[in-house]
Amino acid sequence: MDRIMELPCMMKTLASGEEFFRVETIKLKYGNTNSFFIPGGLLVDTGYAGTLTAFYKALKANGLRLERITHVLATHYHPDHCGLIGELQQHGASLILPESQKGSVHDPDHIFARDGLRYIPVDESKAERISFEESRAYLMTLGIAGEIISTPSHSADSVSLILDNGDCIVGDLQPREFLDGYESNKALRTDWERIMNCHPKRILYAHMPEMRIKR
Ligand SMILES: [Zn+2]
Q1: How far is the CA of 7 from the centre of ligand 1 (A)?
Q2: Where are the beta strands (DSSP E) in 99-165?
Q3: 88: closest CA among 116, 75, 69?
Q4: Rounded distance, CA 116 to CA 48, Å?
Q5: Rounded to the nearest whole angstrom, what is the distance from the C-alpha of residue 76 to the centroid of ligand 1?
Q6: CA–CA separation, 169 vs 173, rounded Å?
Q7: Cα radius of gyration rounded to whole Å, the chain
Q8: Distance from first CA to last CA of the chain, Å, rounded?
Q9: Which domains are seen in the chain, by residue range?
Q10: 183-215: string of b/e by CB count within 10 Å (b at 16+)?
Q11: 90 Cα to the center of ligand 1, angstroms
């Protein structure tokens, strides 16, 4: 048996550069936003419109091929999180659209048009619409253990992806430490209570370094 096959839970890179049995979340940074690839085929967040070439370079640098991205999810529809989704749909990726994001996918269109950027609008008609409740079962069909939860303190359509391995991708959610700076911020507090109930080990932000949860 190939030695790589004996070590399924360790990161191994084949001579071709394609990763194999790599189970951890892969950060792709090619602009101002961190995108995350979850083995199983899911990309969470994309950069701004016009970042496709940089995105391809980031994929290559991480030993990934575009075909590996079978699904895409935006933590929310601010322009720096969803600029490439239309292009990825054209390449065959399915858009996962949690219930709170219905009707939000075109929010950034006018900003990209204003900036004169190459942009393919999201095709909402082809999206995989799911409820939060069914997100775990849906992700399981991709071989991903985890769920999508609503964390609307940053924007009504904001979601977080929490994986059973402890990684939690929160997009633009404000850090939990910020709660100390507010007299009251019920929405942020509720979001963090929801997240902490899932016992995350690592918080992955879109614009900040990751944070390990100390227990
Ligand atoms: Zn945002």
Answers
A1: 39
A2: 128-130, 146-150, 159-163
A3: 69
A4: 12
A5: 7
A6: 9
A7: 17
A8: 40
A9: 3-212 (3.60.15.10)
A10: eeeeebeebbeebeeeebebbbbbeeeebeeee
A11: 24
For residue 107, the one-letter residue type is: D
Taking the centre of ligand 1 as the mean of its atom positions, its distance from the CA of residue 206, in whole angstroms, is 9
Output the CA 35–ligand 1 centroid distance in Å.
13
Distance CA 24, CA 150 (A): 23
pLDDT digit string (tens) for 113-156? Answer: 999 988 999 999 999 999 999 999 999 999 999 999 999 999 99
Dist. CA 140 → ligand 1 center (Å): 27
In this prediction the pTM is: 0.88
**DSSP 8-state code for residue 8:** T
57 CA distance to ligand 1 middle (Å)? 24
